[in-house]
Design brief:
binds 2-amino-2-deoxy-6-O-phosphono-alpha-D-glucopyranose; glucosamine-6-phosphate deaminase activity; 241 residues; 7 helices; globular; alpha/beta; 17% strand; Glucosamine6P_isomerase_CS; allosteric enzyme; identical protein binding; 10 strands
Length: 241
Amino acid sequence: MEIIIGSEEAIGERGADLFSALLTARPDAVLGLATGSSPLRIYDALAARVRAGEVSFAQARAFTLDEYVGLPAGHPCSYRRVIEDDFTSHVDFAPGAVQGPDGTAADLAAACAAYEAAIAAAGGIDLQILGIGTDGHIGFNEPGSSLGSRTRVKTLTAQTRRDNARFFGDDVDAVPRHCLTQGIGTILSARQIVLVATGQAKAEAVAQMAEGPVSALWPATALQHHPRVTVLLDEAAASRL
Ligand code: GLP
């Protein structure tokens, strides 16, 4: 695990460098995208590079990490919509190149299996970007998640629902109780991972991830087993290391 500490701007550029290097070497790379505030600087830096003609996503494909269950398509908080608003509509992906788990499916288990099959058919994920929850979750793999898990339905913890209520007009009751998420095993199958964390609220989770014993109680500790992880932190998120 390589840990890099810098300003939010430096983190954004450093993360964008990883994507640019991959896309230069392999324009048809398969990317793993995350929602949340953590990757936004990287996404903004990448959009600027696309506008400058320095990098292109035209041949790339992407899979998102997770999705709420039951939000109608087009709901402003559905991760399908959020990733479009925050990133994919600002770069040059081809139509249909970005997929996410289907939280509106009648058969959620079948949707999860289909999602795993789609990732496998694409050849697996070359570079996965991750944030981290204050409780150490990655994707929506909450504490207690099996470290070998694949895409499946999960129940959100009260803590995560409180953390995410800010996106739902501060109404915790509006936050869905269930989600679909790539499993920890799915995430670990990516060939390269970059995790971004900023702010004091992430400091404990970051310290556990990097220095704690590998345990399902802190799901991000599973990343210690991955051979190619870059962790981008600001000073506050790094303050308990
Ligand atoms: C959310 C998402 C995660 C995200 C995390 C942190 O619940 N499911 O994918 O990484 O929580 O979010 P943020 O970056 O906004 O702090």
